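Model the whole thing, not chain by chain.
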Amino acid sequence: GAGVSQTPSNKVTEKGKYVELRCDPISGHTALYWYRQSLGQGPEFLIYFQGTGAADDSGLPNDRFFAVRPEGSVSTLKIQRTERGDSAVYLCASSLLGSAGELFFGEGSRLTVL
Amino acid sequence: AQTVTQSQPEMSVQEAETVTLSCTYDTSESNYYLFWYKQPPSRQMILVIRQEAYKQQNATENRFSVNFQKAAKSFSLKISDSQLGDTAMYFCAFMSRSGNTGKLIFGQGTTLQVKP
């Protein structure tokens, strides 16, 4: 497709389980971002990739969160030992280098930890 | 650290009327971008309008315009001739031009309902 694709759209898991969320950016976009949006709040930055490398991971809340982008395209956000506080919508966005902030967002993955 | 504040959690407007959404921000930088993003119920964020801090002229995109007051660190969005499709959550966002990471800092959002 032409837009940013995120899977799954919804994920329900139990506390302590491992979760992977996938993002397929727009073809040719070198920059990729993960944000977390809690209910009724604005998105919070998690991590930024330029190509294959994480250029800025200052928003990852703790070492249970990890993200990869091995071939510079698809990215996976991995959450270990999930906690109820991890429940949120995880948004992925991509952009062209130097696009001055025009990020193209996916529809997000809603994670619910029971 | 930069912060973005939207003090209006909810707003409503009649179809075809004009509404203004407020945003203030705090930064010590002089070179940055400001944005308004729209998030409809589908959850997909869409860029509405962008302002470069070094440009004095206010940005305009069709029915959407901004009032950028750099000294006051204020960045409001005006929607003219409101349409039902404008119903959404609106986020103000800041991006520093230093470091070139493209990282956005968002406000808490304003839910706008356009009434027929």
